[in-house]
Every structure is written in structure tokens, then in C-alpha cells.
Amino acid sequence: MIKATSDPNGSASRTVDDGVFDAVVVGAGAAGLNAALLLGRARRKVVVIDAGEPRNAPAAHMYGFLSRDGSAPATVLELGRAEIARYGVRLIQGRVDQIDHGYDVRMVGGRVLKARRLLVATGLRDELPDIPGVRERWGKDLLHCPYCHAYEVRDQPLAVLGTHPGAVHQALLLRGWSDDVVFFPHTLELTALDRERLQARGLRTVEGEVKQLVIDGDRLRGIELTDGHTVPRAAAFLFPRMVPRDELLTDLGCAKDDSGWVVTDRSGRTSITGVWAAGNVIDPRAQVIAAAGMGSAAAFAINTDLLDEDVDHAVAQSRATVAGDGR
Predict the structure, then answer these.
(1) Which residues form the FAD/NAD(P)-binding domain (predicted)?
(2) Which positions ≥6 away from 169 have C-beta within 8 Å?
(3) pTM of the model
């Protein structure tokens, strides 16, 4: 049994049989919620399962989303949950342990939900370097995406930590928001071309391994090197190692590309029949607004696929009825 989400207009909640869902959506971030919204509006029977671990939880604000610019990530998710509830979409807090090829969705604790179609929108996790201060300041004044957060620290003294090959591009990009950007190669091996490009862009490079982030008064104050030298900075950026939460897709046998990411078509359809994926689980570059769009595209495709199956079934029933009448 599933207890239905309470109606935002105040109607009493009720308990209904699980039965077979038209679609089970795993993950209630922007991609999963937007897909559920469209499928609910299409009057499909939909359930969303969420473990409650949003990637952007450390951030106080979310930017770059039209009409929601500057909103708290938790607020956007709360609004999304209320919206899907209006269309009868059910939300379960829990974790999916396994998905069988027959579209049985097995949750931790033993519950099994049956689905006609699946959408996996479980996102990714950011693996951070083991540098003191990094975890404490992550999502505050230690940032990742310039498009998401650089405007808020514009014209301030910025640092970029060389913890990932993408850090050089990140530093070059950040020069558009500040004239004072210092690149710390840390353990990253820079090529001669890297150094030439950084210098041409007007960035200063400070050699030496980073020892820690200097924090005082709940604010980043600088970057300390192992030689004891500290470079004052107001904010810092680093490129984390992004690891997709794609175990459910991998266990199903979904094809991956040479970089290890699950391959889909433009609608999010994977190589496994009846299974879609959307959001950061398949695209590390997708911002919240892009992930929401991916969820929308997947929902359109899923509903069309369900429609084709429904029509085929109706035609088969009609033919069987005609044949029976003929006898």
C-alpha cells in the first residue's frame, strides 16, 4: 500500500493499492520531478521514489533558472513536490536497491513496485579532494560552477585549485568575472600551452602544493601552501570528480560511452527497452534548468511509448472481439 501525498488544497490523504504503475521515477531532483509533473498531467499513474540526497543541498541559493533565480534549492524541490501532488503523483521517501528486467523496482526494506516504464534520475555525487577546509566550505565560498555562482563573487580575489584537469578551463572562464584570479596548480601537471594560455588571459599562477583553506569567522580567508605561505582570497573554485549514481542502470546492462557514462538518445532512452535516464546521472554538465528539461523530454517519450502499447493492446482486443463475434 502507498499513502498518497496530501493535496495542497487540504483534502484528506488516502491509501490505495500499488498495482502496476505506468511509470516509476527514481530520484526527485529537477529531472525526476519535472518528468513526474508531465506524466501526471498526462493522467498516468506515477510514483516517484527519492532517497533525499540532493546534490546541491550544500548551496544556499540556486542561480540561472528562469523565474527561480536565487531560490534556495530546497524551496524549489518543495514547490515541485507540491505541484506533482496536485496531479495524483505519489512520492515515496526511500532507496531503490535493484531494478529487475521485468520492471520490478525493489526497495531497501523489501517493498516491490511494478512499473510499465522506468525513469532513473538519481544524479551524481561530487568527490572532493582531501584538503582541510574543502568539505567545510563546499557550496559556500568554495564553489564549482562559474555560471551558477561566479556572479555572486564578481570582482573579488578568487582562487582556482588544480585538483582536476578541468581546472585550467575553469580558471580561464572565471577571468570574465574578476580581474584577480590566482591559479594554484597544486598537484596538477601543467603543459607549456596551459601556462601560456593562463598568462595570456591575465591569471597569476602560484606554485606549490595546497596545504589547507584558511577559514576565519565562518569565511574563507586564503589558500595556505605547504611551505607556509598564504595567499589571501575571498572565494575559491575547484572542479570535483563527478561520479554518476548509475548503479541501477549499470546493473540493468545499460550501454556506456568511452568515458563511462550511460548512453541515451535525445529523449533519455537507454539501450534497455522501457528504461530512460535524465539529469546528472547521464550528463555532468546539466544545470538544474537543463536537468528539468531532460526530465520533460523523457516524460514526452515515455508517454508516447505507453500510448503505442495501449493502442496496440486495444487493437488486439478489438480484433479478438470481432473474431469472436464471427464465430
Answers:
(1) 22-292
(2) none
(3) 0.90
